[in-house]
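Researcher: Structure for this, please.
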Amino acid sequence: MHFWATLIVSRKLVVNNYHLLYTTRSLINAFYSDIGRSNVNKTDEVMTIDELVLYLKIPKSTLYKLVREGEIPSQKIGRHLRFRKERIDRWLDQKQEGK
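Model: Predicted structure, token format:
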């Protein structure tokens, strides 16, 4: 009987920990999403790689891959990548139409 009670309690802890992890992850994503919207969408016409990662909600490694393959409109200024928001929005629209 003790084994089954321990198993049930362990399962509840795993489920509760998973829920806590999921809730925490959701809150963190929402926080960074809000930062991205508030910093990018107001007046910035040119975005850095970090701003674009937040705007597109993709990993930085994926964005670097898209740049390397010439898939996404970008411009290199010295050693720094820059992205025009207007061109990115157009690119997104074209990707959506292509589906």
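Researcher: Any notable elements?
Model: The first helix runs from residue 2 to 40. The CA atoms of residues 28 and 47 lie 22 Å apart.
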